[in-house]
Design goal:
Blueprint: E1 3-7, H1 13-22, E2 26-30, H2 33-37, E3 42-44, H3 49-58, H4 62-70, E4 75-78, H5 80-85, E5 86-90, E6 102-107, E7 117-122, E8 132-137, E9 141-145, E10 150-154, E11 160-165, E12 168-171, H6 182-194
Parallel strand pairs: 1-2, 1-3, 3-4, 4-12, 5-6
Antiparallel strand pairs: 6-9, 7-8, 10-11, 11-12
Bound molecules: glutamine.
Length: 195
Amino acid sequence: SPRVGVLALQGDVREHVTLLEGLGAHAVPVRRPNELDSVSGLVIPGGESSVMDKLSRLFGLAEPLRAAIANGMPVYGTCAGLIMLADRISDGIQGQQSLGGLDVTVQRNAFGSQLDSFEVDLGVPALGAEPVHAVFIRAPIVTEIGDRATALASLEDGRVVAVEQGNLLGTSFHPEMSGERRFHAYFLNKVRSSA
Ligand code: GLN
């Protein structure tokens, strides 16, 4: 079974570990650069991207993470994790950096305070006919999608909320909170085929 990491600086780490283990992976928290060396894929959880950014730089993980992404390690980011994977962030806090990798612009907290959180059934053709029950919490949206990235899902108004680019996958929402397993299974397929 593949050994995959969950970036454990901050955020909903436990939910991802449980879901990945349920899919037959060996999931381990990653807080230090040497822990990154021992995994063949990584999930970046939801939480607060500006905090994850600061902690990843403080703990010397930002550069090793960028190198792993550049080397083609499969990485799946949910919500704050998607923000971390975006090449460009709008509405970041002062000085906020991302790791990058996905040729997209994401806008943080894009739904505003009137719509802090909501749930919706989304069509995701890449995952089959059955819709995905998606939970959005202070979620970002993809406002610009570059040539190298592909949209996997959009809201009814056309706003993009799931993207893929090679071994990178990002969703604005939290499959790990609604019992939805297919995004993680899709990610694990990337891990298995790149091993
Ligand atoms: N608003 C958070 C951020 O900017 C993301 C929220 C989440 O991950 N649920 O990082």
